[in-house]
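User: I'm curious what two different proteins look like when written out as structure tokens. Can you demonstrate?

Assistant: Sure. I'll show them one after the other, since each token string lines up with its own sequence. Here's the first protein:
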Amino acid sequence: MKQEETPETTRPKINSEELNELIKSPPDYLLRDNGRTIYFEGYDVEGEIDLDDELEIKENLIFDKCSFLSDEPFSIIGMICHGEVTFKFCNFSSDIYLINGTFNREFSFRYIESKKIFIWGGKYEKIRISGYTINKIEICGGRFQDIDIGGFPINGNIEKLTIRDRGYKLGNINVSRQNFTKINIGGLNSGNTYNFKGVKSNIVSISNFTNEGYLHFYSMEPRDSTNDTRYFQISNSNLGKTEFFRTQFSKYQEFIIIDSFITDSLFINCNWGKNIRAFHASDGALPSGSSVTNKEVPKIREAYRQLKISMSKHSDKIQEDKFYAEELNYYNKSLAWVWPWYNQFWDKLILYFSNWFSSYGQSFIKPLFWLLLGHFLFFSIPLLYGVFEPLGFSLINSSGEAFWLATEKYFEYINPFRSFDNSLSGGYFIIDILMRVWSSYMIYNIIRASRRFII
């Protein structure tokens, strides 16, 4: 078939059958690089396109500024290409399906516009994808060494990315400098590397996923921090040795961890908030209301326990203690008030006291404040009833000398190891015991807080 010469302002139009014939037997005007490249520039291709196993070419194949105009998908269902295949600055009016085929060199989409790209099968050396507008990319099959999404400097937007290995042992996947509305990761990663670098996504859902390879997140954060539906979800998954670097968990509305194993994961310089939940978010929706349900409480406690273990394994003592405190908070919430002759009553009371008076050993100010205030209340009782005569409460006969004498005695009695004397006898002896117990408990909490950074 011979193409008629047309003015430069007119785009040549061909149908899908003509396209197949031109690829099989390219005329000289389509050949470049001394016949090593078949080059389509500025073509409008109409009709349903199926590049099947009847096509086998040794040359590179490039489509530049071409439009594929059809309501039916653009499909590759068996094509064999020994050279590179490139679509650049192309527009696809429908979806792209890579179902089968063999590509021994790089297969790339550069700066394209398409509704959806489905990679369901085939054998590839390397796939590279970037686009001005791509609504959805789904990687569920095929075998390849690498897929690069966003490998070209475009910083484009992709609505949805789905990665789900259904036993094909896909290959390495690198995603960089792209903005997403939602990322789904599932299936089995068997020895491959998934990298997400400089990626922003309102929703990240890792569901029914087992990581036996490498999964890395670098600087992950929401695409739109004002969006009402933004969450990071890990459900029914085993993350294995997943690594999170500078992930902004605090910027997500909810950080959902449910029925998953994360203790072997590494969290480096991540930002945390008190937003861990334990419900299943689906279809990009969060349940109405923000209060934690009773059903969630033990699962949230388990999430904090696993995060605590992860921090301990990697010697992050500061974050380990914070997660331990949250674990105790949710353990306390899981306990109901019972009669005092049950151990559960005292467990709950001890947890309340530990939180109120020291934030589970994390606060230095709290026990110091309660030491001074509590001791003042105990000390005021005998002082009010004249046990420490001539000291007492009086607005009329007050003096600076009496104030400093009372202050001296106040700090003398705050010492739980002071010797016993006869100043407090009878019922006041019980007050003396309470002052000693209170001071001992608060001093212990002060020492505990001061040593929280010492391993």
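Here's a second, unrelated protein for contrast:
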Amino acid sequence: MPSPLALTVRPGPGELRSLPADPPRDAEGLPMRYVYRSDAPLSVDEQQ
């Protein structure tokens, strides 16, 4: 099964970041993460 792919045509300011910052890998070795563009990392509330 192919992996999903997202692409921004016109990138905004900021650098590419990943959530989580150090993602786990699936059975095929691919990182399980969301990639986003931002000047600063998002904060994650882990007490849900």
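A detail about the second structure: The chain has no helices and two strands.
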